[in-house]
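Quick one: examine the sequence and fold tokens given here and explain what the tokens say about the fold. Here goes:
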Amino acid sequence: MRLFAFSLPAALLACMPLAASATTNAAADTCAACSGVAGTAADSAISEVTDTADHQFLLTRYDHRVHRYRSRWQSLIPTQTVMQFAGNMGLLSFGVGWEYGRRKQWETHLLFGFLPKYGSSRPKTTMTLKENFIPWSIYLKRGWSVEPLTVGLYFNTVFGDEFWKSQPARYPDSYYPFLSTKIRLNVFAGQRVELTLPHNRRKFVKSITAFYELSTCDLWIRALVQDSHVRLTDIFGLSLGLKFQIF
């Protein structure tokens, strides 16, 4: 009986390392299995994120169409504000402008002007649609640049019943052939000086441009051709202006 009593703990002691070893092996197998599952899940998650990121950069026809749609509407946002004195468009004219072209050498301005009444019964408002072309620009230093030549044309109209599109009956036939007092066609040439502001000093504008223009209109050119007393210097007028580049 004593032998059995002492042999039982010995048997138990003999079995305990085996149980511990089995438990350790089972735990190791379980960790290995968990690690494999976790690794597979992590790889799947990374692959899914990568696929999603790749899908985000893969634009469809719809995305391209929306981009073109937004770009066209954004191109209607004015990039300039303009103020001009004289120029056969009013005493003072104010408006907005757009620039475009590969080198931003084309500009379109829409201006509204104020014309005092002088000898007439009331002051008047004018509207001008202007197209500018700047062949080249010369950079000097410290943000200063010169545009030695600017050319263009513009259409101008005066709001009021005093001006007509077609010749009234009170004038002889062909007295004003192909011309009216409602719309004037003007051509001009001029020069500009531009100052580009440093980035840390920009608040409302990117650059400021001062310019002058020598312009004439179709009526004055007609008078030069038909009247020998009219000289070339008589048909040109001087105008001054400022242009503020917003962005």
